[in-house]
């Protein structure tokens, strides 16, 4: 009997093993046609989306990058996975730089620049997008936040759309719109006084809307010329379009967001230009190097340049740093207001032109262009002096280099504030021209006497490096929309329940009012009862008669 049972158990085991485990298989949904578009903003608006596009192309999708001639070069590194399509030259007299005022974030000149840009480019771009989307049987469009014709063409054709953003700028991100976009304040109202909050809400906001009104009017006019009666509102809370943001909690201020918001950053490039041999030798031979760069569009004024350079030279003389690399374009060097010479408090005089040529001191390097990521990646780069653009901050944090931020406009003041709050950098007031304060902040970071910058950066670097994997999550999200959408462009599963609820029901005001009414009724009854009791005559005790 025992032998029989043993044989049966062996046969059962063999039978089970022959069946094997069932491995879930994901259905092959087939290749789709995906267009990524950006025409303004330069590489910081483009490269991170093409990184996501590469992942999608590797998964078998047909991915293309739609732009204008000046930006075609940014698509070259991603070929042949991503095809670049140009809509033609930049046909406007307005450049991206003109859309920001470093002194007043939303000035009249800025609103005028937006109007001119729309008048020059909207119709050409709209018809180009419409034809491309229609002729290629597009399955999904990923439009830059500044590309209104891209939104409208996709919306008219009922093509699923995702907006890609470099900063939180929509109602359903609960973005600190009032305090960070058209003021130089912090990204939230937490540290603002009552007066500042009142000013932002009741003075700055109406002023912004007043300045923006001509732009809204021009948008309406341009749409009418192309036959669009009702356009797409990209910043509306219930627009039903996913906003894909190259940001993360830690740089963004944590707050509730809607279901149409996806933080997918910080997306770091797959490859970067390596250090040329002479620069590598320089960094190898210097232990405490400061790197200075202000992006493609911004350059310090003559006064700002003088304060920054004087601070660097005095730190060099005090042996706080032993060299610097300043990425300062040839065009920026031709500014008429740059000082001819710099005198430090030690009495030393430096001729600026000699510094540009590298004749004064080989430890002080000005470069027309520098491989930024490679410099920040070197162990001897100890500080990055930056304008505070998102891409620059991402690269610095990924490499664990603390920041001294000199913000100009747009999202930069809010970014600078956030980095200071995170304890991985300090922020300068560029309008103050404060040499003492600049020097003091530079020393605090470089010396780091209590080790706080290093300690804070360790956790931030880990956070950023782990978050940098999210380009695969972004690709998953795009595919999710591709295959789950209904009625061509209805991202139904992300729509908030409140869209189909009465306002009173969604806010619970009906039950709140009912409860309030009940409470008031109870109080009224109690009060009436109390008053009635007060009006009752006092009962006199009877006197006893004795006989």
Brief synopsis:
This protein has 547 residues and is of the alpha/beta class. Helix content is 45%, strand content 12%. It folds into two domains: 244 residues, Rossmann fold (3-Layer(aba) Sandwich), CATH 3.40.50.2000; 191 residues, Rossmann fold (3-Layer(aba) Sandwich), CATH 3.40.50.2000.
Number of helices: 19
Q: What's the name of the CATH homologous superfamily of the largest domain?
A: Glycogen Phosphorylase B
Instruction: Give the overall shape, derived from the CA principal axes.
Output: globular
Kindly provide the name of the CATH class of the largest domain: Alpha Beta
Distance between the terminal alpha carbons, to the nearest Å?
114 Å
The strands making up the biggest β-sheet line up spatially as: 3-2-1-4-5-6-7
Please provide the count of β strands: 15
Briefly note the CATH topology name of the largest domain: Rossmann fold
CATH architecture of the largest domain: 3-Layer(aba) Sandwich
The radius of gyration computed from the alpha-carbon positions, rounded to a whole number of angstroms, is 31 Å
Which blocks of ≥5 consecutive residues have pLDDT under 50?
175-179
Q: What is the average of the pLDDT values?
A: 88
The chain-level structural class is alpha/beta
Whole-number tally of structural domains:
2
